[in-house]
C-alpha cells in the first residue's frame, strides 16, 4: 500500500486498541501503543532509506527482507521497547502485541499488491504478490478516514467504530479475492485471441470492476489489456528486443536489480545522440503510454556502457535527459 494508507491504518489500529481494557484504562500504555502502532505501520518501509545510497540498492531491497517474518519480529520488539522507554509505566506486553499487529498488517497488506514482497524469506527467496488490492485503494483509505473522523469528533466510540471498520474490510478483502479468482478462471474463455501456451496475470486497479491484464505469449511478447464487466480489451503489444547490445546489458547491476524483482521485464533499444539506450521496462506498470519502472543502460556507438539509471522514470524531463523519446498521451 502507499504511505498515506499505512498512516491511516496506524491511526485505525490505535483506535482499535481502545478495545483492550489495559490500553483504555492506562494513559501511559495508550500513549505507548499509539506511538508503537504508528511506527510499526511504517517500519517495514524503512528500506526507503536505501534510495539515499543508490537506486540499485533501493530496487533490490524495497519490500524485500524488511517485509519478512524475521524482520517483523525485530521491528516489533525494537519499536515496543522504544515506545515503553519513552512512556515509563506502560505495559510492555500490551504495547508489543499491538505494535506486532501493526507490523503484521503492513506486511500482509503489501502482499496483496502487484509489487509484492519477500514475505516468505528466508524459507522462499522470491517475490510473492497476490494481485488483489491496488497500491492505493480508495475503499480502504476512505473508510479509515470516515472511522477516524467519527472517533476524533466524539460521535462514535472507538470501541464501536473500529471493530465495525475492520470487520467490513475483512469482508471486502474476501470479496476482492473471490472477484480476482473469478476473472482468472473466466479470462481464457473470454479472450478472443487466445492461443495454447499463453499465460495471464490479472492485476487490480482503483476501479472495482476493472482489472489490468498482462498476457505472455509463446514467442516472448507481452499483450496488455484490461477486463471490465466480463469483456477483455487488448490495448498494446510489447515486443522484446534480442539485439546483441540488449544481451550485453543484461549483466549490468541495474538490470539485474530489476530482473530480480519482476518476471515481467522486457527490453527495447533505441538510438540516441550519444549512441544507444537499452530500456528494460516492467510491463506491469503502464501510465500514459509509458512504462515508468525501468532500468536504462546508456551506451556509446561502440557499445561501451557510459551511464545507467534504474527506478521510476515518470517525467518527460528526466527521459529527455537520457536522450529518450517520450510519447505523450
UniProtKB/TrEMBL annotation:
Keywords: Hydrolase, Membrane, Transmembrane, Transmembrane helix. The chain crosses the membrane at residues 72-90, 96-115, 127-150, 156-175. InterPro entries: Transcription_regulator, YdjM-like. The keyword Membrane applies. One of its GO terms (molecular function) is hydrolase activity. PANTHER family: HYPOTHETICAL MEMBRANE SPANNING PROTEIN (PTHR40031), MEMBRANE-BOUND METAL-DEPENDENT HYDROLASE (PTHR40031:SF1). This is Metal-dependent hydrolase.
